[in-house]
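Field notebook, page 295. I keep forgetting to write these up properly, so this time I am using the form the group agreed on. The chain and the ligand, geranylgeranyl diphosphate, are recorded exactly as supplied. Prediction of the bound pose follows.
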Amino acid sequence: MLTLADFVADVRARVDAALDELIPGADISPTRLHEAIRWSVFAGGKRVRPAIVFAVGETFGASRTDLGRTAAAVEMIHTYSLIHDDLPAMDDDDLRRGRATSHRQFDEATAILAGDVLQTLAFKAIATDEVLSPEKRLKLISLMADAAGTPSGMVAGQQLDLDAEGETLSIAALEKIHRQKTGALITASAVAGAIIGEAEEAELVAIRTFAEKLGLLFQITDDLLDVTQGTAALGKTAGKDAAAAKATYPGHYGVEKSHELATQICTEAGAELAALPRDTSLLRGLAEMIAQRKS
Ligand code: GRG
């Protein structure tokens, strides 16, 4: 039987192959742009969002071929957001995925352009995915645009986060920011898998709720890792939340209570799956993996 580790390794191999095919080679002009894109995309990210696309899609019987490009597209949107989030105008960070951030390795203008074009490549990848029907492609494009954009997607969440700098946030306000900034793309990854696997409407609702919990779980563990792990283990600067006086779960609840909250949300996520007449062991395993992640 395929273990979760085998599944994750398989997702990584498939997504990396799709990304390599979709992103122009570093020898193609303008080479600096393509080098920069590849620098960030192939830096060793965990590929969590593609794993969610594959896990949900396979739960509903979609083939891995049908899921590959959409999984790669989500990873491109995610990587663009990291490149832009690290820019001097935003988080001003030097380290990402264990290596220099794009603007440090190249320059600020190139980093902006690398992020911009990763986003357009992502939408092109779905629009031209001939293994999917035109109807599915349209649904996926609209889903991803909402999740990445505004008013309730990732960019809107980033703006809310910037607006809240220096303010004391309630936990409800903090959750709204996270639901958009981190949660929207995670939820869209799950819903995309369900669309490709032709899930029923009621199943889509259950998957969406499951994924929203997964997004929250991901953020709590991200906040915990920021205070409990070092820079080397994370591959990005640790302790940034406290340094920037950001509202976080450990900051609000303390480390121990935040761990308990993570366990509780993982259980709640699992409970959402009970409504699905499917084998959901892969999805439960993925939630456990996110709850226990160390980077
Ligand atoms: C700048 C448009 C724009 C959006 C920024 C994603 C994001 C929104 C900001 C990143 C800031 C951050 C650390 C958010 C917490 C959750 C998160 C997205 C962590 C990074 O994702 P991982 O851990 O990264 O999946 P890897 O490198 O493994 O892919």
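OBSERVATIONS:
- The two ends are 26 Å apart (CA to CA).
- The mean pLDDT is 95.
FOLLOW-UP: compare against the apo run.
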